[in-house]
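It would be a great kindness if you could assist me with a short task in structural biology. The matter concerns a single protein, recorded as an amino acid sequence and a row of backbone structure tokens. The record follows directly beneath this note:
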Amino acid sequence: MTCRRCTPTSTSPSRCCSTPSGGTVLGIDPGTTGMGFALLALDVDPPRLVTCGIVETPRGGSNSERLLAIATALDALIAEHAPRALAVERLYFNKNVKTAMAVAEARGIALLCGARARVEIAEYTPQQVKMAVTGNGSADKKAVQQMLVHVLKLETKIKDDNVADAVAVAVTHAHRARFEALVATAR
């Protein structure tokens, strides 16, 4: 697997690249030129960012080679971290049909990898993600990136848009999972 990993808490490496003992969620921002991913530990409040980065695909590779690279990397991430859930950004709208088709194919690969591993799968629209992270469903990417620092208590902002989107999708699922657990407890 080839991926660039972020180190959002560079003074505390154990916070970024260790496998948590509790449940985790793998957030995915689909794309074929580089798929953003983020793994959050859900056993603490706020959730802890375990690892994040970009699943890189072969430059100049065919579409099938790119999709194979994504599948191989996601299978490896799932096998290594055993997330209890896979949260994927839902394709909501795109003016460029060619781009939308490529993103849809990458989403399909992510869904397939999750289903094959028998992991719970959740899908969120960009508006749901923005609302969960910022409280505003029409927030821009910069606002989401700034709020992630506060929500996850990171030392630095995640600068790569695809990685930040994957982290935001994972945070959205973490919020939903926590809310559902509270409702279940109340019953």
